[in-house]
Amino acid sequence: MASAPYALPPRPRFDWHLRTRTLALGPRTRIMAILNVTPDSFSDGGSFLSPDQAITHALQLLDAGADILDIGGESTRPNATPVTPEQEQARILPIIEAILKARPQTILSIDTFHAATARLAVESGAEIVNDVSGHTWDPAMAATCAQLACGVVLMHARGTPQTWHTLPPLPPGQILPTVLSGLRESLTAAHTAGTPSNKILLDPGFGFGKLGDDNYVLHAQFAHLHQLGRPLLSGTSRKGFLRKTLLQLPSVPESLLYATTASNTAAILAGAHVLRVHDVPAAIAAAAIADSILHVTNLEVATS
User: What global pTM score does this model have?
Assistant: First the structure.
């Protein structure tokens, strides 16, 4: 008897409960656009540091179709210089206020691992706290997010930006178990503090302590993250492991747009619910095609 043809598994559906609204995840890929108001981020540091530049770019990202704006006031690139929460807040709070004044319905996320910044950002109107440390770098963050009753992104990070260059490589067979274990610990911390599961999105943290080709191992095993029972975010936009691969080609493309698009498509087909990206139009185009493929898979499951 011939075996059944291979088919992609259907993407699980969730309702992501934010601070004041609910976002359906699964029917189509959601796009989280990156707005870094920093002088030293790895891709766009300094490009949007002034309020006028940041607000103009924010509105462009929204007009291009972004579902969420993720605002960051501190770089987490390798060897980044730490800033104080007060410096971070001085960068991001005026931007939050201006964006919501111009577009009151915007879903804003604050990219921070400082509980004090998270509190002020949410009190200023942000719906989501995107904690790249998964509630591990600031002991007050888990309780703060629970008190704020906001949406939460818990990301896995191995080490810190200041220690990544000293980390030993992980054996390929240990990469997924390390990420799963770390994300389970972050989930436990969030739940213990009082954040319910329906407010939590998980991010495996491409590039955050994963070295070079480690990221491709994680990419290939992305679908295994569904065992955690929460919606998933993929954030590979313009990252160093993509650049490293391009540098091995005889003719290197001028930008990382094509590489990011390929990575985004692969992540969606593995079940990613949200993409965190710099280039919104390209991500939307990739999602339209990948979502159409997943839609056929869902129809096959429904009629089988």
Answer: 0.92
